[in-house]
Amino acid sequence: xxxxxxxxxxxxxxxxxxxxxxxxxxxxxxxxxxxxxxxxxxxxxxxxxxxxxxxxxxxxxxxxxxxxxxxxxxxxxxxxxxxxxxxxxxxxxxxxxxxxxxxxxxxxxxxxxxxxxxxxxxxxxxxxxxxxxxxxxxxxxxxxxxxxxxxxxxxxxxxxxxxxxxxxxxxxxxxxxxxxxxxxxxxxxxxxxxxxxxxxxxxxxxxxxxxxxxxxxxxxxxxxxxxxxxxxxxxxxxxxxxxxxxxxxxxxxxxxxxxxxxxxxxxxxxxxxxxxxxxxx
Length: 281
Hints:
Blueprint: E1 2-5, H1 9-21, E2 25-29, E3 38-39, H2 45-55, E4 59-62, H3 69-74, H4 76-97, E5 100-106, H5 128-140, E6 147-151, E7 154-155, H6 162-171, E8 176-179, E9 183-184, E10 187-188, H7 189-201, E11 206-209, E12 216-217, H8 218-229, E13 236-239, H9 270-279
Parallel strand pairs: 1-2, 1-4, 2-3, 4-5, 5-6, 6-11, 7-10, 8-13
Antiparallel strand pairs: 9-12
Helix pairs in contact: 1-7, 2-4, 4-5, 6-8, 8-9
């Protein structure tokens, strides 16, 4: 049995993809009950240890996290508890029952000074969010056969995300300001879930960049979204990161090299991801 922590944008896709491909998948929720899922607050150490000992999953895919970068910057104890110590609780629980752990991490562990980062490149988080996610990576490394799956700008059909925000804003005639100087590797949640499934199926271990197969600026990404949906891209206003005041620092180019994961799963480009997203709506 595979246990998936979290039922957000990525977690829900992992549950769907792994459930259809491999079967025997159980999801968890924290504050929003969902039918067929188990309640799990990863910040509650005793309960996490008990719940995982009772379920005895063969693998745990840990997607649950606090991902609002600016919120984490201002609520550091909460972010540390959720992203770092919560991951330690998962890792310790997995060790007790000899379970494999797949930990979903982030491109933000890099400082963005050059982009197209490989798995063995030096990390240097700029924000507290990124720092807590990196701590999670260190805790997971204690688990034999662990996988660390780093992703970037995840989008999909569940919950609001960059694609749905841009699309819905433009459809409503609302202008949006988008950075021209921030680069990433936008990732379809379903595609990332497929990559995670392939890693589990092939019994892979180590760090993998499970991100989109294209380096692109936020601005050009928004323009591709407009083009794909036939919307007015004149409503997309180009700005630079220096024009906007954000509480937490972001890397300027956190794009990820996905060559390593390609031996198990081919990651989609932006347009391929948007087409796939619409196919399953």
